[in-house]
Design brief:
Elements lengths: L11 H29 L5 H10 L3 H41 L1
Helix pairs in contact: 1-2, 1-3
Length: 100
């Protein structure tokens, strides 16, 4: 029957804009995580002290944010692992079905 979903192709400018936005957001998250780790390890670098003052977050909030990000990243990796396993098993099942 074919693919009934008609998708509009995005222009290269729109792809560039979307990717820049996504990578920029990830860069902000990484900078915040690095500043949290440095703060928890008592490593004082002027830029990270400035980031800490800019965020205006207490030490307990830093620790809770770090735990939240850790759990979230672990959850994403676990879900991704099971999705890949399921995808591989379904691919293998379809391949065996075709052989019969």
């Amino acid at each position: 029957m074919g693919n009934l979903i008609i998708r509009k192709k995005r222009s290269w400018f729109r792809k560039l804009l979307e990717n820049t936005f996504v990578y920029g957001m990830w860069l902000i998250v990484i900078i915040i995580l690095i500043s949290i780790i440095f703060f928890l390890c008592n490593i004082d670098i002027d830029n990270f002290v400035t980031m800490y003052l800019l965020l205006n977050i207490s030490a307990k909030e830093f620790q809770s944010y770090f735990e939240m990000f850790s759990w979230l990243i672990s959850f994403i990796f676990i879900i991704g692992f099971f999705v890949q396993m399921h995808h591989g098993m379904m691919k293998e099942y379809k391949h065996e079905e075709i052989k019969k």
